[in-house]
TrEMBL record, chain A:
<keyword id="KW-1003">Cell membrane</keyword>
<dbReference type="InterPro" id="IPR017871">
    <property type="entry name" value="ABC_transporter-like_CS"/>
</dbReference>
<keyword id="KW-0547">Nucleotide-binding</keyword>
<dbReference type="GO" id="GO:0005524">
    <property type="term" value="F:ATP binding"/>
</dbReference>
<dbReference type="InterPro" id="IPR030679">
    <property type="entry name" value="ABC_ATPase_HisP-typ"/>
</dbReference>
<dbReference type="InterPro" id="IPR003439">
    <property type="entry name" value="ABC_transporter-like_ATP-bd"/>
</dbReference>
<dbReference type="InterPro" id="IPR027417">
    <property type="entry name" value="P-loop_NTPase"/>
</dbReference>
<keyword id="KW-0472">Membrane</keyword>
<dbReference type="GO" id="GO:0005886">
    <property type="term" value="C:plasma membrane"/>
</dbReference>
TrEMBL record, chain B:
<dbReference type="Pfam" id="PF00528">
    <property type="entry name" value="BPD_transp_1"/>
</dbReference>
<keyword id="KW-0812">Transmembrane</keyword>
<keyword id="KW-1003">Cell membrane</keyword>
<dbReference type="InterPro" id="IPR043429">
    <property type="entry name" value="ArtM/GltK/GlnP/TcyL/YhdX-like"/>
</dbReference>
<feature type="transmembrane region" description="Helical">
    <location>
        <begin position="187"/>
        <end position="209"/>
    </location>
</feature>
<keyword id="KW-1133">Transmembrane helix</keyword>
<comment type="similarity">
    <text>Belongs to the binding-protein-dependent transport system permease family. HisMQ subfamily.</text>
</comment>
<dbReference type="InterPro" id="IPR010065">
    <property type="entry name" value="AA_ABC_transptr_permease_3TM"/>
</dbReference>
<feature type="transmembrane region" description="Helical">
    <location>
        <begin position="20"/>
        <end position="42"/>
    </location>
</feature>
Length: 260, 219
């Protein structure tokens, strides 16, 4: 580090500049600008089709942005200047630092719960097996599934599967976690357990981007809420301001719909 | 008059023919699996330099008769300086043939694994190859194994065609014995019985493998 860097304000964990994504004629993201500070919990709300998933998927490059820049701790993620092979390595390295949890869990059905959590640290990070195992067991304890380590995903409830998926992502010790409507596929009575795990994670200081329709969670756990529509950030505010005093007409309209 | 006692005398010859048939089958099976997996992965690749040769290979094999393929390799290749001899020509021809069918079977299995599996694997930092090997292929295997096994049973029966390029396997053994005994009915029926033994054993093995993979990979 250079001496001057310590005098600068804290750099954002994640910085997004005029991000664009289109599929042919369809513009899904129309210039999104966003900064997420370390330890911040950013909640993303907005109607279906507004580009929330696409935004998250651009961050870990499951989708390739058509314009703009995304930086993780100052490192350009969508760095098109690299050679193809170099880019592959770079992206895999980025993905190790960015955990993602999906609406549909996507656990590996041919592996036990413990194997699901251990697979990537062993295979990708080439960590020592006992370390990985101890860490996996600890994480499964944290998400309340110590008794399910040798079960297969098909034997678990949706809520349990989703908590395994969170533990699996955490096993890579990511700097940022992306949650894409992780409770939307769950029976209502199972939602609470998953949200509690996410709340614990937020309290432990994880930087999180959370796409959700759970406005209670957004208000309680979120540090900041953004409202997206038609591929742009329409409003960006604290949870209190967003829910009690939204500035934009479209935000008010949306909140009226979902809170009714 | 039918004379089955003659079988007792010539049975060992037929069995040694059957053993060569088995050997050819197993070799072509292993090679055919390698060809099939390679062609399947190439056909799924984004790179057209990989994809188009695979598409061409699969199309070529599936749109021409096996017998002609064997003739090209055994009779034709020596003309361009590749003389493999009857045995290797037979194994290569059969392996290339079953490989093309395996490729379509394997490709079908791979694309039937939900896209979310690849995305989950890649989001954890796995390379495309790691995701394929550890996440996609093990799941595809469950779907692939029954039709793949069917391809192998067909392969065992197809080995009889290499008798036409002078490989003395079960069919050609029977033909030669007929030349000296003039007992075509007895000899061919015995050959058929031995083929049935081989294919049935393969089917039983297949059921066993299927059960094992189902136990390992419950979804
Ligand atoms: N692979 C794709 N090809 C074409 N259109 C897509 C693709 N993925 C998403 N879209 C479109 O992009 C828009 C935004 O999708 P998405 O980011 O999933 O929205 P949200 O998560 O906010 O509901 C939708 O109109 C969707 O149909
Ligand atoms: Mg979505």
């Amino acid at each position: 580090m250079t001496p001057t860097s310590s005098t600068r304000p804290i750099d954002p964990m994640l910085e997004i500049r005029s991000l664009q994504k289109s599929y042919g004629q369809l513009n899904v993201l129309n210039g999104v600008d966003l900064k997420v500070a370390p330890r911040e919990v950013l909640v993303i709300i907005g109607p279906s089709g507004s580009g929330k998933s696409t935004l998250l998927r651009c961050i870990n490059h499951l989708e390739e942005p058509t314009g703009g820049q995304i930086y993780l701790e100052g490192e350009l993620i969508n760095d098109t200047g690299r050679s193809r092979k170099d880019f592959e390595k770079h992206i895999n390295h980025i993905r190790c630092q960015v955990g993602m949890v999906f609406q549909q869990f996507n656990l590996f059905p041919h592996m036990t719960v413990l194997e699901n959590v251990m697979e990537a640290p062993l295979l990708v990070l080439k960590k020592d097996k006992t370390t990985v195992r101890d860490n996996a067991l600890e994480l499964l304890g944290k998400v309340g599934l110590s008794d399910k380590t040798s079960a297969y995903p098909s034997m678990l409830s949706g809520g349990q599967q989703q908590r395994v998926a969170i533990a699996r992502a955490l096993a890579m010790e990511p700097k940022v976690m992306l949650f894409d409507e992780v409770t939307s596929a769950l029976d209502p009575e199972l939602v609470g357990d998953v949200l509690r795990v996410m709340e614990d994670l937020a309290r432990d200081g994880m930087t999180m981007l959370v796409v959700t329709h759970e406005m209670g969670f957004a208000e309680k756990v979120g540090d900041r809420v953004i409202f997206m529509a038609d591929g742009v950030v329409v409003e960006d505010a604290s949870p209190q301001a967003m829910f009690s005093n939204p500035q934009e007409r479209r935000t008010r309209q949306f909140l009226k719909e979902v809170l009714k | 008059m039918l004379d089955w006692t003659i079988i007792v005398h010539y049975f060992p010859f037929l069995v040694s023919g059957a053993l060569l048939t088995l050997q050819i089958s197993v070799l072509s099976l292993i090679l055919g699996l390698a060809f099939g997996l390679t062609a399947a992965l190439c056909k799924l690749a984004a790179n057209p330099l990989l994809r188009w040769p695979a598409v061409f290979y699969i199309w070529l094999i599936r749109s021409t008769p096996l017998l002609v393929q064997l003739f090209i390799i055994y009779f034709g290749f020596p003309q361009i300086g590749i003389d493999l001899g009857p045995f290797m020509s037979g194994v290569l021809g059969l392996a290339l043939n079953v490989g093309a069918y395996n490729a379509e079977t394997i490709r079908g299995g791979i694309i039937s694994v939900p896209k979310g599996q690849t995305e989950a694997a890649r989001s954890l930092g796995m390379s495309g190859a790691q995701a394929m090997r550890r996440i996609i292929l093990p799941q595809a295997l469950r779907i692939i194994i029954p039709p793949l096994g069917n391809n192998f049973v067909i392969l065992i029966k197809d080995t009889s065609l290499v008798s036409t390029i002078t490989v003395v396997e079960l069919t050609l053994t029977a033909q030669r014995l007929i030349g000296s005994t003039y007992k075509p009915f007895e000899m061919y029926v015995m050959a058929a019985v031995l083929y049935a033994v081989l294919t049935s054993a393969a089917s039983m093995l297949l059921v066993w493998v299927e059960r094992r993979t189902r136990k390992e990979a419950r979804a």
